[in-house]
Amino acid sequence: MTIWFATGNEHKRQELAAILTGYTITIPSDAGIVFDPAETGSSFLENAFIKATVLFEAVHEPVIADDSGLCVDALGGGPGICSARYGGDDGGKLTPSERNALLLKDIAAAESAGRNTGNRNARFVCAMVLLLSESRFFAAQETLEGEILNEERGAGGFGYDPLLFLPEQGRTVAELSSMEKNRISHRSKAALTIGKALEAMYNR
C-alpha cells in the first residue's frame, strides 16, 4: 500500500520506510509535486498539520507529515521549530555543519553569560500526523532525550545527530547504526503509534 509522506527530505523518507515496513512511502517529488509549504505554526504539531493539509489538498489520499527539531534547555528550548532554518536568512539555509557550529557557539555564549551553566540537556522532538480527511486524523508526539557535546562525534545520521549524546547508549545519535536509531528515535516512536492507527484502519 502507498502512503504519502509530506517531506522533501530523503533521509526522513528512508527512516519512515524502515519503520513502516509493508508500505510504499511516496514523497511529493516522486510525482513531480512542488512542495514547500510555509511553516507558520507555533509548535511542531501545528507545522505537521500544515504540511499534511497542503499535501492532502494536492493528492486527496492519506498523508503522513511530521515536524521535528532539537530543543536545548540552555537555549530556552531553541532552536526548536526553527531547527532546520537555524541561523539562516532569506538568502538560504546553513549547512548542517554550520548549524552545529552555531549551536555550540550559542550554548557557549549562554553559559558564559551565566544562563543555564553546565546544563547541556536537550532532546529531539517529533510530532507526526496521519491525515485521512479534512476532519479525521491521528497524531503523536515523541522525544529522544540526551545531552549536547562540545564537538561532533560520529559519521552517521544527519543534522544535529553528531551533537546529541545518549547517556544510556554511551554514544551520539550519529554513532548509532540505522537499525539502532530506528529502534529508539523520536521519529520511530511517533511513527510506531501512527503505524498502529494504519493497521487498525486496514486490518493489517
Q: Main beta sheet: strand number and arrangement?
A: 8 strands, mixed
In the residues, how many domains can be counted?
1
CATH class: Alpha Beta
Q: Which radius of gyration do the C-alpha atoms yield? A: 17 Å
The helix content, as a percent range, equals 25-40%
Low-confidence stretches: none
CATH architecture: Alpha-Beta Complex
> What is the succession of H and E elements?
EHEHEEHEEEEHH
Q: CATH topology, anyone?
A: Maf protein
First-residue to last-residue Cα separation = 11 Å
Residue-averaged pLDDT, rounded? 92
Percent of residues in β-strands: 15-25%
The tally of beta strands, per DSSP, is 8
Structural class: alpha+beta
Describe what you observe in this structure.
With 204 residues, the chain is α+β, with helices and mostly antiparallel strands. The chain has helices at 10-19, 44-59, 96-112, 178-184, 186-202, and strands at residues 2-5, 24-26, 63-72, 78-79, 121-133, 136-148, 164-166, 171-172. The chain has one domain: Maf protein. It is globular and about 50 Å long. The chain is built from five helices and eight strands; from the N terminus they run βαβαββαββββαα.
